[in-house]
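1st attempt posting a full record on here, be nice pls
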Amino acid sequence: MTETDEFQPENRIGAMLVSSRSLDEYRRMFALTDAELTTRILDCPGGAASFTAEVNAAGGHASACDPTYELSVEQVRDTTLDSLRRAYTYHQTNPDEYAWTYFRDANHYRQERTRSVELFAADRAAHPDDYVPAALPTLPFADQRFDLVLSSHLLFSYADRLDRAFHLESLRELARVGREVRVFPLVPMGMTENPELAAIRAALTAAGLRTMVHTVDYEFQRGGNAMMSIVSIVHA
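the predicted structure (as tokens):
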């Protein structure tokens, strides 16, 4: 999820629009190795990303969860493509707000993201059990169900509407279901620093979770080139 829409307090996550990213973007955002892509992975929230489709097509074991999976494949696809059209127009008008190092330009952005949503739609139609309707901060998975949990463009991105308590509850829940959690990016939209990050990391440490921040080889939102990994001190 990336772009914003009207925000309803009673449905904090459902009011955010869905976007799509590819396996290659995930590799860079989360510094994923070939070996890590063979483990049990959860993408949360998965949105209309093609990550799960591409990993599983290569023989991996990925699942995705997102509240939008309550909707039909066609509804999610069409909503995402509509969001993409609006984002494309914005990127054309405001190119200086973005780092064009991964995408060459707005046209390349639209081409790659369209490819991702089409792969997602086809895979979800073919393998619906890999796409679980669920929303943070409560997930329907057993403790340590996954080796790696990836979470992009929700936590920290929407700091204007998701408070510290929500972040901490969500991060603890992600750490409950996965042996390692990776979160990207670490800065809110429209900002290059996160004034909440230090306090959240301190609270996670107090809860028995170790955090580490890593610079990664991906930047589209300016200043968004770092991810945080979280592991339980008990399982580290």
